[in-house]
Design goal:
The complex is a heterodimer of chains A (about 325) and B (about 190). Chain A has about 325 residues and is α+β, with helices and mostly antiparallel strands. In chain A, about 65% of the residues lie in helices and about 5% in strands. The chains are: A alpha+beta (about 325), B mainly alpha (about 190).
Chain lengths: ~325, ~190
C-alpha cells in the first residue's frame, strides 16, 4: 500500500484521479448489487413488483446522498467539529488567516474560508466541494504549538487537498459509505421480516437451481460485510491521498522540512482531538483518534488506518528536501 | 467520388475543431498568465502601502537607525516610481533587501518586539513578502506552462499562426538573493 518517493507529481495526480473514478464506480456497482440482490430475493419470494424497485432505489439513495452532501456537507462537518470563523483581532489567528491566503496564492486558487476549533490538541482539516468552495479548519492547539513556517507546511498540505479535489472525493465517499450502511441495515431487517414469507412461497421459484443459491449466498455475505468493506475502502482512499498532499504541499512551499517538523510536533502531542468526531477522521492531517494503529507498517494496520504512519511521511519529506539540496 | 468528398470534409471539420480547441487552450493559459501577473502587482502595491505605516511606528524607537529608515523609504519610493518589468523587479528586490535589514535591526529593540501595533505591522509585511514570493512562484509555474504549450509540436502551428509570444519568467540573479526568502522575519522568540 505504500507509495514510492513521489517524484512526478503530475503523474501521481493523474493516477489519483483514475483511482478515484475506479473507486466511485466500484461503490456504484456495489450499491446496485445490493439492490439487485434484494429485487431477486423479492421476485423469488413472489412479492416482487414488475420493476426492479430496490436496484433503482439503492442507486437513487446513493446519488441523492452524494448530491446532498455536496450541497451542505462541508457545513455539517465544520459544525460537528465546533469550528468557529477566524477572529482577525487575535494575532495568532491573524497569522493563520495570512498563511492561508499565502498558500492560496501559491496554489493559484481562491482563498478558502478559515476556521478555528477550540481544542488543545494540534490538528487540522480541509473540507468543501472543490477549489471554488472550500474551508480550512485548524485547532487552537495547532496555532499554539507551531511556528509560522510549520503552520505554512500544514496549510500547504490542506491546500493541496483542496487543489487535488480530495475534499470533494472524500465528501462523496463519506456519503456513499453512509448509504451503504443504511442499505445493509435495511436489507438485514428486510430479511428478518421477509424470511417467513419466502418459506411459504418456496414452490414457485423451485427450479432456479444452484446459480441462484450461489448468488444469494454472495449477496447475503456482502450485505453483512457491506459496512466493513465500505469503510475499508474509504480509509484506503484517504491514506493514498495523504502522501500526495504532503508532496504537493511541499511543492507549494518548497520547504518539505517545515511540514516534517510540524508533523513531528503533531505526533508528539498524541492525545485524541476531542472535538473531532469519528466521521471526520479521514479529513484531518493526522488521525484525531490518536490510535496506535497508524504508527505501524504492515498489512492489517494499513488496512485499518485512515492515515499512513507518520514516521514514514516524515521520512519521505526529508528525502524530498535531500533531493532538492 | 462522393465518398472521397465526404472524407475530405470530415478531415477539414476535424482539423478546424482541433484548431479551435488548441487555440482556446492557449488563450486560457494566456489569461491565467496575465491574471497571475496582476496578483503580483496587488501584493507589491500592498507592500508599498504598508511601509510608511511601519516607518512611522518604529521611528521613535529606532532613532539611531535613521540611515536604515531613510534607505527603506528611498527604496520604497523608487520602487513605486519604477516603470517596466525589469526595472520594477530590480527596485523591488532592493526594497526587499533594505526591509530585511530593518527587520534584522529591529531584533535589537525589545520595546518594538513587545509593541502590539508594530508586531501586527511586521506580521502583515512578512505575510506580504511571502505573498509576493508565492505569487511570483505561481506566475513562473503558469508562464512555463504557457510557454511549453506554444512550443510542443502540433500546437506550435497554432501559436505561430496567431502570433503568441513566450512570456518572461522571474529569475533570481545570484545566490545572495536566492537566500533572501529564507530570512526569518517573524520576530518570534527564539
Amino acid at each position: 500500500m505504500t507509495v514510492a518517493t513521489p517524484t512526478n507529481l503530475y503523474e501521481q495526480q493523474k493516477r489519483n484521479i483514475a483511482r478515484t473514478r475506479l473507486i466511485l464506480a466500484g461503490f456504484i456497482l456495489f450499491l446496485a448489487f445490493l439492490g439487485i440482490g434484494a429485487d431477486v430475493f423479492l421476485y423469488g419470494s413472489g412479492v416482487g413488483p414488475g420493476i426492479p424497485v430496490c436496484t433503482i432505489g439503492a442507486l437513487l439513495l446513493g446519488g441523492f446522498s452524494a448530491w446532498w452532501s455536496l450541497q451542505g456537507g462541508d457545513k455539517a462537518v465544520l459544525e460537528s467539529a465546533h469550528a468557529v470563523p477566524v477572529d482577525l483581532r487575535d494575532p495568532k489567528q491573524r497569522t493563520l488567516d495570512n498563511v492561508v491566503e499565502e498558500m492560496a496564492i501559491a496554489a493559484g486558487l481562491p482563498k478558502p474560508a478559515v476556521f478555528v476549533i477550540p481544542d488543545p490538541d494540534p490538528n487540522a482539516f480541509a473540507t468543501g466541494v472543490g477549489p471554488q468552495r472550500s474551508s480550512v479548519a485548524v485547532t487552537r492547539g495547532l496555532l499554539d504549538s507551531l511556528d509560522r513556517g510549520e503552520l505554512q507546511g500544514v496549510i500547504s498540505h490542506e491546500m493541496s487537498h483542496v487543489r487535488n479535489y480530495d475534499i470533494r472525493v472524500m465528501t462523496v465517499v463519506a456519503a456513499l459509505v453512509g448509504s451503504v450502511l443504511l442499505l445493509s441495515d435495511w436489507g438485514r431487517r428486510g430479511l428478518w421480516w421477509g424470511g417467513g414469507s419466502r418459506r411459504s412461497n418456496d414452490r414457485e421459484g423451485g427450479g432456479s437451481g444452484v446459480l441462484a443459491l450461489v448468488f444469494f449466498v454472495l449477496w447475503f455475505a456482502s450485505l453483512i460485510l457491506a459496512p466493513i468493506i465500505a469503510q475499508l475502502v474509504a480509509m484506503a482512499v484517504s491514506r493514498e491521498r495523504e502522501y500526495l498532499a504532503d508532496a504537493s504541499g511541499a511543492e507549494l512551499t518548497r520547504n518539505p522540512l517545515a511540514l516534517a517538523s510540524a508533523l513531528q510536533k503533531i505526533d508528539a502531542a498524541a492525545a485524541p482531538t476531542e472535538s473531532i468526531k469519528q466521521g471526520v477522521a479521514h479529513l484531518c492531517i493526522e488521525d484525531p483518534r490518536g490510535r496506535a494503529v497508524n504508527d505501524r507498517e504492515g498489512f492489517l494496520s494499513s488496512l485499518l488506518s485512515t492515515h499512513p504512519p507518520i514516521a514514514k511521511r516524515i521520512e519521505l519529506l526529508r528525502q524530498m528536501a535531500y533531493q532538492k539540496a | 467520388m462522393a465518398g472521397c468528398f465526404l472524407v475530405l470534409i470530415a478531415i477539414v471539420v476535424f482539423a478546424a475543431l482541433w484548431a479551435v480547441w488548441r487555440y482556446n487552450n492557449l488563450i486560457t493559459l494566456k489569461n491565467q498568465v496575465t491574471n497571475a501577473w496582476k496578483q503580483i502587482d496587488v501584493q507589491l502595491k500592498r507592500r508599498h502601502d504598508l511601509i510608511p505605516n511601519l516607518i512611522a511606528s518604529v521611528k521613535g524607537e529606532m532613532q539611531f537607525e535613521q540611515d536604515t529608515l531613510e534607505k527603506v523609504i528611498q527604496a520604497r519610493n523608487s520602487a513605486v516610481a519604477a516603470r517596466g518589468v525589469a526595472d520594477s523587479a530590480d527596485k523591488e528586490n532592493q526594497l526587499t533587501q533594505t526591509l530585511n535589514r530593518l527587520f534584522a535591526l529591529a531584533e535589537n529593540y525589545p520595546n518594538l518586539k513587545s509593541n502590539e501595533s508594530v508586531k501586527s505591522l511586521m506580521e502583515e509585511l512578512t505575510s506580504t513578502e511571502n505573498k509576493i514570493g508565492f505569487a511570483r512562484q505561481f506566475y513562473n509555474d503558469i508562464a512555463t506552462r504557457f510557454n511549453i504549450a506554444q512550443q510542443i509540436f502540433p500546437d506550435s502551428f497554432i501559436a505561430s499562426t496567431f502570433k503568441f509570444q513566450p512570456v518572461e519568467l522571474f529569475e533570481i540573479k545570484d545566490a545572495a538573493e536566492r537566500a533572501v526568502p529564507q530570512v526569518d522575519l517573524s520576530l518570534r522568540p527564539k
